[in-house]
Amino acid sequence: MVDQLALVLGWGIILLFALRLYKKKEENDVSIWKAVIAIAVGLFSFSINFPVFGEIIGLPIFPLGVWMLIFLLRKRESSWHRYRAFAWLGFGANFVFLILTLLTIPAQSLIYPENQLTTYISKIDDASLIALHPSAGSSTLNKEIFGEQLEKSNPKSVQSEEWYYETEVDQEIEDRSERFPYQLAGVSAKWGSGFSSIVYIEEDGKGFLVTNGAEQRYFRTDQSILQGGEN
To answer: Could you say which of 111, 137, 169 is where a domain stops?
Structure first.
């Protein structure tokens, strides 16, 4: 949602600049569609990518599109003179989007904090459990307690290596249980967050493992959300 608003705002800024340029050059017989093409071509650039808060940001350093137009219009200086400002506007648009992207990163974290379980689980009206392992037993979801505990959940560190040894190494094959034997179905992330997460429930009903792409987050509650589970 934040990214989409930034994209709309960015194009709005470019449109305003383009209209101002067009009005200034209107007496020079400037064609609207040629100006649009010049802006579109000017957008092409050579960029260097670098990470910022887990996001890959492209920094434009060379105006490929502008130089393409210089080459194509090298024998038509009058055309280049009329449309060069629009080409450079296209290249400048990269910096507009770069600045807006940098601004959306903290805004995204503020509106959709990744250290809160409520970001990944919004409505629980249709929530249900899917048993993924025989050790899940016949426990069911206690929606009342779930609703109460959702706001009270606390983020914890993911102990992947420790969990692996506890379930795969320290247990006999015939007695082996799954640490997260349930999957939470019928829920979705907060509207506009852009997250598409899978939520697994720990065997005691107090732990939530949220998988969002390549990232995993772990949360704990004080009470079990399972009926028949450990409290």
So the answer is: 111
